[in-house]
Amino acid sequence: HTDNYVNVVSNRSGVPADSRITTTNRDVMVPIVAAMSFVENGVEAKMPDVEAGWKLFMQN
């Protein structure tokens, strides 16, 4: 199941599965989180919610 999860997130986010990521890179993390939300919830993420989460993350 893990390989499938990683492949779906990679395909949906456009970030290669073997990429080294930096959690403070918005252009990488927002698409990854949106893709993870889709895998875990089965529906498209609401991008305003993902963006709000990103802003909260960066405040800490």
Average pLDDT confidence is 96
The portion of residues forming beta strands comes to under 5%
Q: Between the first and last Cα atoms, what is the distance in angstroms?
A: 32 Å
**How many structural domains?**
1
Low-confidence stretches: none
Number of E-state strands: 0
Write the layout of secondary structure elements.
Blueprint: H1 2-13, H2 26-41, H3 47-59
Helix pairs in contact: 1-2, 2-3
What does this structure look like?
By secondary structure, the chain is an all-alpha fold. The chain has one domain (2-59). Helices cover 68% and strands 0% of the residues. It contains 3 helices and no strands. The chain has helices at residues 2-13, 26-41, 47-59. α1 (2-13) crosses α2 (26-41). The protein is globular. The termini are far apart. The model has no long low-confidence stretch (mean pLDDT 96).
